[in-house]
Design brief:
- With 118 residues, the protein is an alpha+beta fold.
- The protein is built from five helices and four strands; from the N terminus they run ββαααββαα.
- β1 and β2 form a beta hairpin.
- α1 crosses α4.
């Protein structure tokens, strides 16, 4: 298991960065949803959930209805998810192009970081 992976929920999964967690929360709140449902859908514990809900509400990415206690993504939150998904697609393209360049450079052999720096 690499340093970016952890064992969670019986499945090897990549450890998420804060931007991915925010996107997961906002995706789960496209419709009005309870705190408990967000916690399960975004795979967070209660302490993490409360921290993110506070930040996202304060930043205007998430709307909270105090009467029902439910949350839903704002327009700004929806825009965040769209931009985040665009970023992920771009990152994947760059990663693939980088692999192709390394393959061309190395003439089929694996190039180490040390060789590239020399």
């Amino acid at each position: 298991m690499s340093q970016d992976e952890s064992y969670r929920g019986g499945v090897n999964q990549k450890r998420r960065n804060p931007e991915e967690i925010v996107a997961d929360i906002l995706r789960s709140t496209e419709r009005s949803i309870s705190k408990t449902r967000i916690m399960y859908k975004a795979a967070l514990n209660y302490k993490q959930l409360n921290k993110y809900l506070e930040i996202l509400t304060k930043e205007g990415l998430l709307l909270h209805d105090p009467r029902s206690g439910r949350y839903r993504s704002s327009e700004k939150g929806t825009l965040y998810v769209e931009r985040f998904e665009e970023f992920v697609r771009t990152r994947e393209v760059i990663t693939e192009k980088s692999k192709a360049l390394r393959k061309l450079f190395s003439n089929g052999r694996k190039v180490t970081e040390v060789e590239v720096e020399e």
